[in-house]
Amino acid sequence: MDARFNMLGNEIGVKFAKRFANAGMAIQQSSLPQSTQELVALRVSQINGCGWCVDMHIQEAAAAGETAVRLGLVAVWRETTVFTEAERAALALAEEGTRLADAHEGVSDGTWDRVREHFDDDQIAALVSLVALVNAANRLAVIVHQRGGSYEPGMFAAVLG
């Protein structure tokens, strides 16, 4: 199935995408490790069922040197030995921050405490912003039926540059 609508083929869509990308730059330029950023973005996209974003984050993470094993195990990270304690805390925050409707308390105190153990304030700000931004991106792509399978690393930088 083709996408319902091409957001980048519309003046308002392009303006929004550029501003959205600029918000993402603050996260990308933060001290939050790039590998953590991609793992979190991938997990949020998996939960939201966004094929486009899953494809994008797998491609970008692989291009940045992430291993196929770790990428393949993100969906079941609790049952693995390949993620650091900091990454596990970030993945827990990503899940709880994405599944807000599934938990009455949102992000649990236990998860928040683990995040505080591993990340400084700037990294936490980047992590929280990343979870929110990826959730928004997932919704955009799912609403217009943007399908995964055709993403190339760096694709948006060329379009939005």
Descriptive report:
This protein is mainly α. The protein has one domain: AhpD-like (Up-down Bundle). Helices cover 65% and strands 0% of the residues. It has eight helices and no strands. It has helices at residues 11-28, 34-48, 51-63, 68-73, 85-98, 109-118, 121-143, 155-160. α2 packs parallel to α7 (121-143), α5 (85-98) crosses α6 (109-118) and α5 (85-98) crosses α7. The longest helix is centred in the last third of the chain and has 23 residues, at 121-143. It is globular. The two termini are 28 Å apart. This is Carboxymuconolactone decarboxylase family protein. Residues 16-96 form the Carboxymuconolactone decarboxylase-like domain. Pfam families: CMD (PF02627). InterPro entries: AhpD-like (IPR029032), AhpD_core (IPR004675), CMD-like (IPR003779).
